[in-house]
Description:
Layout: H1 5-24, E1 29-33, E2 39-44, E3 49-54, H2 67-93, H3 118-143, E4 146-150, E5 157-162, E6 165-171, H4 173-178, H5 181-197, H6 211-221, H7 223-235
Antiparallel strand pairs: 1-2, 2-3, 4-5, 5-6
Amino acid sequence: MNGRWGFDEADDEFETLEAAEDTDASPELVTGQDAAGIVTIWVTYSAEVVSVGLVREWRSSVEPQDLHSSVAQAMNAATATVCAKQAEQFDMTGDELGGTGPGQVASNQSENEIPLTSDYVMQLLSAVSADVGQFVRQASAITAQSVTVESSGGGHVSISGARRQVSDVSLDTRWLSSARHSAIEAELSDALTGFTGRFSLGELAQGPRSPAISELMSLISDPEATISRIKQRRSS
């Protein structure tokens, strides 16, 4: 028998409480839970996994062979929350597209002096449509891929899915039945981190960006300048 068994359990509990305090205190994280509240997953606003938590007596609430469902539910709930918050942020700021704000338009000031003719506006909208379409194709090529990731700490956890949505979680039930609480959380976190990392958009996460998009956003965010350019067309 392991003489440190009692100390290991105490260490597990301390580590879990400490991790929960750190994650709960951060305003930059969102959480996802399964319906029963057995699994909690903390993620960033870009859906990157920070940590995974299991309730202390999870084995009395769910069989090891059924834990996979709770993990999938919690991860997908976290992803859905991130998507909702990103959409809310876009609605509130109104300037996420293109990443420019009022006065931060094209560095070439002569563009702001071009009269807004119908032909010019149609060309601008066509360019914006093409740039956004290219962005969607590039992002879709990353997020639409189906991936399967195993935990690197022992291969006891495997996560599969596409578009950041978990479709299957495979767990070594024999390992689950005897592994330390902290070891299970760590390996779940490792596998889920690897899974979400495969869908990282890199710079694409900032949204579509191009000179045409910047100019369109400038027209929307600076009505006075837009009206001035329309008047130039009428007077020319």
